[in-house]
Design brief:
By secondary structure, the chain is α+β, with helices and mostly antiparallel strands. The chain contains three helices and 22 strands. Strands 3-10-13-12-11-14 form a six-stranded antiparallel barrel. Strands 2-15-20-19 form a four-stranded antiparallel beta sheet, with no helix packed on it.
């Protein structure tokens, strides 16, 4: 007999191993199908969650800071002498000699220069002669009046003639007084040929030289010298309006100068204008500092450091938290429900990187920093930590 199967005959029945293999294949197929379905469902859920998360704006927040201690206020100051006067000539002529140059310390009444005034000398000599003539005329008129009054007593002359002599004597007396006054005026002008210092100080400018034509009176650029009293100095500061109330007489301050690095000179407020400049909205304040050693120079630029006492405690927020809308100045706060609330605020003093909030905000509020322009009231946001500074700082 042949062992080959008969054509068209049925295959032998499968054994247990074949059935187990078939079952394993089916289970694997079902697992693959289930994994595919589950992964797609998870991917869709993850995509939906990511889409929802991306649709919620991410913001960083900061808490307002309340500062109770006093603050340091630094303002520019202009240093001026305690006294300063331009010295003009009161007599016309030519400069004969000058005795003091710039930087010379002078005392009150010291001669700074001398003026040669020949015309004035001649006028003074003429005035002296006029006084002598007036004196002679008055003496004669007075003697004549006395004689006529004696003759009138004996009725030797008429009363009219005696009155004429009395009037002439009175007129001659008035002429003498006029000539004497003119002589005194010219004598004063003669004294002005010597230009003197009005007070103790330093000559800070000499604007003339020997032989220069001198015109009496005040004119632009016509000052011969400038004298400054620098034993004390005045410092003028323009204080902004928010700090005007703190500027009172006796308030201490410290001065810093570029030519004296690391040093501070004590000063104090002496006067205030008690009125704001309507153009700048600033208060002019005068401080004074002792300069007996002459270390400080008038005309210098000074940094004036005030220590201003703290007033009512007001929270401060970063300036990049402000929102400028048509309704006014606002900030965005985030509540416990992670929703934005736009609040209108009243700003106070500006400290550069921070600004004081007078009303509309509390110290416990969370304020959005760098709010986007699209931020609206009631929108949901995600609060994220601020980015780390470069270098891990």
């Amino acid at each position: 007999m042949s062992d080959d199967p008969t054509p068209g005959a049925a295959p032998p029945p499968a054994g247990p191993a074949a059935r187990r293999l078939l079952q394993a294949v089916i289970v694997v197929a079902l697992l693959v199908a289930a994994w595919g379905i589950v992964s797609r469902v998870l991917a869709r859920a993850s995509l939906a969650a990511e889409t929802a998360a991306v649709s919620v704006p991410a913001v960083t927040t900061a808490h307002p800071v309340a500062v109770a201690e006093g603050e340091s206020l630094v303002l520019p100051g202009s240093v001026q002498p305690y006294f300063e006067a331009p010295i003009y000539a009161r007599t016309s002529g030519y400069l004969k000699v000058w005795h003091t140059d710039i930087g010379t310390h002078v005392t009150k009444g010291q001669v700074l220069a001398e003026i040669d005034a020949p015309e004035l000398d001649q006028q003074y000599a003429q005035a002296q002669a006029d006084v002598s003539t007036a004196e002679a005329n008055y003496r004669l008129a007075r003697i004549t009046d006395e004689r006529w009054q004696g003759l009138l007593a004996t009725e030797s002359v008429s009363k009219q003639d005696a009155d004429q002599r009395a009037g002439d004597a009175a007129a001659k007396q008035a002429a003498l007084q006029s000539a004497t006054a003119n002589l005194a005026r010219l004598r004063e002008l003669e004294s002005f040929k010597q230009v003197r210092a009005p007070f103790d100080g330093v000559v800070t400018m000499r604007n003339t030289d020997i032989g220069a034509l001198i015109n009496a009176g005040q004119s632009a650029g016509g000052a011969l010298f400038r004298v400054s009293d620098t034993h004390r100095l005045r410092i003028y500061v323009a204080v902004p309006e928010p700090y005007a109330a703190a500027m009172v007489a006796g308030l201490p301050a410290e001065l810093a100068f570029a030519e004296h690095p690391g040093r501070h000179f004590p000063a104090k407020v002496v006067y205030t204008a008690h009125a704001l400049d309507p153009a700048m909205r600033t208060l002019q304040v005068e401080l004074q500092v002792d300069n007996a050693g002459g270390e400080l120079l008038p005309g210098a630029y000074a940094e004036v450091h005030f220590q201003v006492a703290a007033g009512a405690v007001a929270p401060r927020v970063p300036v990049n938290a402000l929102i400028f809308r048509s309704g006014g100045l606002m900030v965005a706060t985030v509540g416990a429900d992670h929703r934005v609330s736009l609040r209108k605020i009243v700003a106070g003093r500006d400290f550069g990187t921070e600004i004081e909030v007078r009303s509309g905000l509390g110290p416990g509020d969370e304020v959005v920093v760098n709010p986007p322009d699209s931020l609206i009231d009631g929108v949901e946001v995600r609060v994220v930590p601020p980015p780390a500074a470069p270098g891990g700082r």
